């Protein structure tokens, strides 16, 4: 197997340290290895390539070339660039009335669980969330949301299981919500593959009808090279406003985060770190950068420079 | 899937110089992993001549086909009349429950008797989910109370399947991340419990892997394999844009053979894994 990124960065260090002077050639060689490690962390190919080019450009700058410890400098550039790419402004959710949040994503990404997690969080912040089950396909999807809603004492709109018209469900749900004294409506939708035209059309219709302020793409942190296709397709179809990255309690390196952020420019707003509803928090670009780089030790080395 | 080859032809045709980076990108995009991709690219570069689209496609296919095993799926009822027990495991949301339903339908359609056990007593409405499937497909189901010990659900189901002479018993377990040690030992306990009434059970332990997953799927397979020595793999969601290339690395490193593929949310969108088809589709 390939080395982890931190191993390969350490090698980069050593190699570059060995050279009295840094040349474009030895930086390129070292960065090729680092690029492979990014790919192993599931960063999408073109994103990884652009990223390496950017780092290289900076690395060839005056200060690095003349510094006594060019290797460390490069890793620092690496880490800072990555943090910046993952970060940007942390825009809070737009919860101005009528506050509607639409949850979308691939099958099994974690939409239903995340809908409940978000409801719990909003409730703690003193808002009055309502959950609306808009998955008419998956067996017992409505019961799943119902059970989760009951656990956190949040009202759930449960359409009849035989209902097939999603826009009608949404219409009925809005009517129901009028009597519920809620302030934020969270719509959980069925999972779908981004290239399934029929199901994407259905989602577009729902989105058009609801005109939600927030449309969150829920994505599994272990997503591979298709992350760009997934994020792009959903964004084109319904204009996502943010991303929620789930299952970060595992050991996925989460390169998909970089790919999705990079290609859509949309912020990663929250992360899921467990099956329990409290395992949900705000996204921190710096931590994610460290995770993708898998380089705790390297970062602290850099900080000592 | 597909389309890759067409793209490739356009890229390779009429070009004095091939863009190796781009070629690498296309192979990586199938989640084949950096290692296998490098092997293929290196070999092409070593040809030392102008390469054609066929070169690329042939080389890639040959490498993948060399790694993957011949399909020799043969699920037959046991001759001693005891149930053939299949255990489905995997990380959260990959498609275990749906694949359990699909597999039961597949076996039933071959004339076998099948029973399913809803041993995910943890996730909200997991039992109801399998129950809806069982009713739809008219397959008997054994379930436990919410938060019941999954091992005891499996034990009861096994007992019932033995008593009724059911030929196949499929156990649907809760999703769990491979990094959670206590949940992995819960699986070991299920395995031990199922062995009590028939030391040869479970007979087929399959990990369910989502085709959209990248390199982490290899890590998943490693850890589940450590806990319960897997015999096979189901790759789901191949109807999406994920090509499931990671299963090549999984077989290469761990010898866990792909057995079935999932191609949609419906019961019939499921079939035995065919190496030839997979190799064609990935290109
Ligand atoms: N470990 C872990 N599991 C999670 C997390 N978020 C969700 N899950 C689990 O992932 C699985 C799928 O979650 P769901 O919420 O049902 O996913 P979904 O996107 O609604 O699925 P569909 O509606 O079928 O598309 C369940 O087992 C959840 O418990 C997380 O952050 N960590
Ligand atoms: N498009 C597609 N969706 C699938 C396929 N297999 C399963 N799914 C969907 O993926 C989602 C998760 O499937 P489940 O069967 O609930 O997954 P699971 O592994 O049992 O999930 P947990 O028990 O929560 O860990 C559901 O929306 C399924 O309909 C497939 O082959 N293609
Ligand atoms: Mg759901
Ligand atoms: Mg399940």
UniProtKB/TrEMBL annotation, chain B:
Domain SRP54-type proteins GTP-binding: 83-283
InterPro entries: AAA+_ATPase (IPR003593), P-loop_NTPase (IPR027417), Signal_recog_particl_SRP54_hlx (IPR013822), SR_rcpt_FtsY (IPR004390), SRP/SRP_N (IPR036225), SRP54_GTPase_dom (IPR000897), SRP54_N_sf (IPR042101)
SUPFAM superfamilies: Domain of the SRP/SRP receptor G-proteins, P-loop containing nucleoside triphosphate hydrolases
Reactions this protein catalyses: GTP + H2O = GDP + phosphate + H(+)
Compartments reported by the entry: Cell membrane
Keywords: Cell membrane, Cytoplasm, GTP-binding, Hydrolase, Membrane, Nucleotide-binding, Receptor
Residue stretches making up the AAA+ ATPase domain: 82-240
Membrane topology designation: Peripheral membrane protein
Keyword Thylakoid: no
Annotated transmembrane regions: none
Domain of life per record: Bacteria
Entries under PANTHER family matching the protein: SIGNAL RECOGNITION PARTICLE RECEPTOR SUBUNIT ALPHA (PTHR43134)
Family membership: Belongs to the GTP-binding SRP family.
The protein's name in its UniProt record: Signal recognition particle receptor FtsY
Organism: Rubritalea halochordaticola
Gene designation: ftsY
């Amino acid at each position: 197997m390939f080395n982890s990124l931190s191993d390969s960065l350490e090698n980069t260090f050593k190699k570059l340290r060995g050279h009295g002077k840094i040349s474009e050639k030895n930086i390129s060689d070292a960065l090729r290895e680092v690029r492979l490690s990014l790919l192993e962390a599931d960063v999408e190919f073109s994103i990884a390539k652009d990223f390496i080019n950017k780092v290289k450009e900076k690395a060839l700058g005056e200060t690095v070339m003349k510094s006594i410890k060019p290797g460390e400098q490069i890793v620092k550039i690496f880490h800072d660039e990555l943090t910046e790419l993952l970060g940007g402004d942390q825009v809070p959710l737009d919860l101005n009335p009528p506050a509607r949040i639409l949850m979308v994503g691939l099958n099994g990404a974690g939409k239903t669980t995340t809908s409940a997690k978000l409801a719990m969080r909003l409730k703690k912040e003193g808002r009055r969330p309502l959950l609306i089950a808009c998955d008419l396909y998956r067996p017992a999807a409505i019961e799943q949301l119902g059970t989760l809603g009951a656990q956190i004492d949040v009202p759930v709109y449960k359409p009849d299981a035989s209902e097939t018209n999603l826009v009608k469900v949404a219409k009925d749900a809005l009517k129901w919500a009028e009597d519920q004294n809620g302030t934020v409506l969270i719509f959980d939708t069925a999972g779908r593959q981004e290239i399934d035209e029929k199901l994407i059309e259905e989602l577009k219709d729902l989105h058009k009808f609801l005109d939600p302020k927030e449309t969150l793409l829920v994505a599994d942190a272990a997503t591979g090279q298709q992350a760009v296709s997934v994020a792009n397709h959903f964004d084109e179809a319904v204009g996502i406003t943010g991303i929620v990255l789930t299952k970060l309690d595992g050991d996925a390196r989460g390169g998909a985060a970089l790919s999705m952020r990079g290609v859509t420019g949309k912020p990663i707003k929250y992360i899921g770190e467990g099956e329990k509803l409290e395992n949900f928090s705000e996204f921190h670009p710096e931590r994610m950068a460290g995770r993708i780089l898998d380089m705790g030790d390297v970062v602290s080395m850099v900080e000592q420079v | 899937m597909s389309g890759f080859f067409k793209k490739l032809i356009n890229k390779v045709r009429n070009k004095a110089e091939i863009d190796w980076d781009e070629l690498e990108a296309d192979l990586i995009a199938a989640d084949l992993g950096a290692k296998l991709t490098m092997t293929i690219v290196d070999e092409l570069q070593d040809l030392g001549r102008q390469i054609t689209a066929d070169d690329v496609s042939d080389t890639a296919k040959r490498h993948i086909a060399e790694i993957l095993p011949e399909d020799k799926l043969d699920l037959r009822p046991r001759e001693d009349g005891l149930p053939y027990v299949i255990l489905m495991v995997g990380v959260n949301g990959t498609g275990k429950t749906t694949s359990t339903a699909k597999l039961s339908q597949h076996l039933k359609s071959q004339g076998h008797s099948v029973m399913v056990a809803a041993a995910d007593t943890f996730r909200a409405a997991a039992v109801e989910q399998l129950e809806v499937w069982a009713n739809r497909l008219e397959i008997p189901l054994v379930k436990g109370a919410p938060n019941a010990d999954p091992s005891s659900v499996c034990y009861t189901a096994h007992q019932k399947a033995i008593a009724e002479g059911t030929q196949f018993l499929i156990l649907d377990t809760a999703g769990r991340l491979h990094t959670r040690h206590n949940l992995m030992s819960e699986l070991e306990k299920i395995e031990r419990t199922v062995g009590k009434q028939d030391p040869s059970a479970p007979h087929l332990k399959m990990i369910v892997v989502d085709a959209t997953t990248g390199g982490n799927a290899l890590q998943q397979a490693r850890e589940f394999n450590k806990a319960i020595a897997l015999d096979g793999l189901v790759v789901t969601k191949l109807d999406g844009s994920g090509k499931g290339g990671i299963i090549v690395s999984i077989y290469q490193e761990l010898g866990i053979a792909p057995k079935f593929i999932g191609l949609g949310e419906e019961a019939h969108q499921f079939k035995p894994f065919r190496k030839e088809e997979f190799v064609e589709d990935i290109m």
